[in-house]
Amino acid sequence: MKLNGNAVKPGNVIEHNGRLWAAVKISHVKPGKGGAFAQIELRDIRDGTKLNERFRSSETVERVILDEIGCTFLYEDGDNLVFMHPETFEQISIPADMVGERAAFLQDGMTVTMSSHEGEPISVELPDTVVMEVVEADAVVKGQTASSSYKPAVLENGVRVMVPPHIETGTRIVVRPEDNSYVERAKG
Question: pTM to 2 decimals?
Fold first, then answer.
């Protein structure tokens, strides 16, 4: 699918110089002289290298449509993560570094969105939020007001997060895997 260079949006995947790139940041520039262009920060979806590229509105780029499917996380196998395809029940093994640090939030049976191009997996999106148990939390310092800073805590997966003072060891909380941020106390 052809796109004008200035119509690329963040999150779009384009083919450029024979590689697949995800558009990360886009700024439209209108210099005093010459035509307007889009300054696009691209990230290679296979190895993560970054590239800044300028596209004029007259240029066209090839937008790549990815296949997205909800796969179930099964287990970790060394440096690989194994998922199951929901229809064929085929097991899909991908390198753990494709998921990166967010892999710590994977739980048995968790449904993730796997994007693939021509049958080859290229990225995995975790759910927006995950429920985790706090296994270690610092005690509240007397005199510290509720509106003051958060305190450090360690989750069951070993990840450190900052939580409000009222969260104690054993509390289940909702966390955002993208940035390891506390959302709220888990209900129930």
Answer: 0.73
